[in-house]
Amino acid sequence: xxxxxxxxxxxxxxxxxxxxxxxxxxxxxxxxxxxxxxxxxxxxxxxxxxxxxxxxxxxxxxxxxxxxxxxxxxxxxxxxxxxxxxxxxxxxxxxxxxxxxxxxxxxxxxxxxxxxxxxxxxxxxxxxxxxxxxxxxxxxxxxxxxxxxxxxxxxxxxxxxxxxxxxxxxxxxxxxxxxxxxxxxxxxxxxxxxxxxxxxxxxxxxxxxxxxxxxxxxxxxxxxxxxxxxxxxxxxxxxxxxxxxxxxxxxxxxxxxxxxxxxxxxxxxxxxxxxxxxxxxxxxx
Length: 285
Description:
Helix content: over 70%
Radius of gyration: 24 Å
Low-confidence stretches: 264-285
Strand order of the largest sheet: 1-2
Structural class: mainly alpha
Mean pLDDT: 83
Order of helices and strands: HHHHHHHHHEE
Shape: globular
Number of strands: 2
Number of helices: 9
């Protein structure tokens, strides 16, 4: 029989089945490269689909393996959503001229590596905490706390990068500004989702903040809803954002309109109308 937790899992399953097909379409449009961001939306959708199925199984046929699978998949998904935003930020920065202070690609690679480490710690923590041994559970909590700390650190750095990128909005490829607006709109939902992750990881109130037997209402409004909105924003941005061709980017085809205007305007301002002298020749200033 499906209870409230199972009902939320069914709703999540339905949403991410649609998100999976939308992610495939967007990835086919923009490419499956990690620096485009949308490939992580595809991965995130698959994780949430698998997690929902595991949650439904755990509700109807509870066992250590099914509960562990549901817990591990629930804890490993958030990092993939963070990777999606990192990928979008990297895509935006690729279109900013190098002399305008764009963020180097290695910074994004370091952040992705930190999130991969957080995934490993979160999975290990979930496995250890499912053990009946107090020693294993204590070790699992340590791993979970470390993963939550990495999530918070990466998120803080990521938002600083967003502000730095927004400072160069006039140098962006015009179509990429839609991505920046989507990232900005997703910010409060990311904050709420991160707060929920931290409260669960540090067991502030296990009766409420717990992915296994905590409050379903709190999970729905602090975790699931936030993920739905962020995924919808990023995928919508993928639908309306023009395709960025790497070869044309390297050839300098994507010149920002403002940068081009700044090169042309001074010549027009300093060049007065041509006057014709008595000899019929034209004097140029």
